[in-house]
Specification:
With about 190 residues, this protein is an all-alpha fold. It has two domains: about 80 residues, RNA polymerase sigma factor, region 2, helix turn helix motif (Rna Polymerase Sigma Factor, Chain: A), CATH 1.10.1740; about 70 residues, Orthogonal Bundle (Arc Repressor Mutant, subunit A). The chain contains eleven helices and no strands. The chain is globular, with a radius of gyration of 21 Å.
């Protein structure tokens, strides 16, 4: 009696190992954070991450084992964003948040407001600086990884991060470390309660 034939493994299934699948899935939260910083919209960010995953899995055989998977995924996401951005040039940007603010009630939590100020300040940075700040500062990537993703020299990334941080400090009126966190009145109330 003949044994049943096993389906032949496709090149894609030979490349996508369980370990590689886990590594890809573990990159999703950071990819999403990067996508939110690029799009300033959680809905668009989710779509961008989903499209990145689809493209990565469709072309998984192009990934070179032993290289930086996270950088490869971030590059796919960045390229997808740039393609979509070129296609959506006619959409009006709301960098000042005027239209969004008119559609919702602002919450009273100060940390949420500070986050919104930071998000708005990030939108005022040149795209290259914003991208470098998010990759190095928010996503925790090394300068080398960020340079690989952006396709530029390490020194260029360091310069973009430095200039971006300086500009953010100006936009947020941060002159010293004491300007971060609770304001003077809140600190006084907290210290009085101790």
């Amino acid at each position: 009696m003949a044994r049943p034939r096993r389906p032949r493994a496709t090149p894609r299934s030979r490349v996508l190992t369980p370990a590689l699948s886990r590594d890809i899935l573990s990159a999703v939260p950071r990819l999403r954070a990067f996508a939110v910083s690029l799009t300033a919209s959680t809905d668009r960010a989710d779509d961008l991450v989903q499209e990145t995953m689809v493209r990565a899995l469709a072309h998984i055989e192009q990934f070179q084992p032993g290289t930086n998977l996270r950088a490869w995924l971030f590059t796919i996401l960045r390229n997808q964003f740039n393609s979509e951005y070129r296609q959506r040039r006619w959409i009006t940007e709301d960098s000042d948040g005027i239209y969004v603010d008119s559609l919702k009630v602002m919450p009273e939590q100060s940390s949420w407001l500070e986050f919104q100020e930071l998000r708005l300040a990030l939108t005022k940075l040149p795209p290259e600086q914003r991208e470098a700040i998010v990759l190095v500062g928010a996503s925790g990537m090394t300068y080398e990884e960020a340079a690989s993703i952006c396709g530029c020299a390490i020194g260029t990334i360091k310069s973009r991060v430095n200039r971006g941080r300086t500009r953010l400090a100006e936009l947020l009126a941060i002159e010293t470390i004491e300007d971060l966190g609770p304001d003077q009145e809140s600190r006084a109330v907290m210290s009085a309660g101790r």
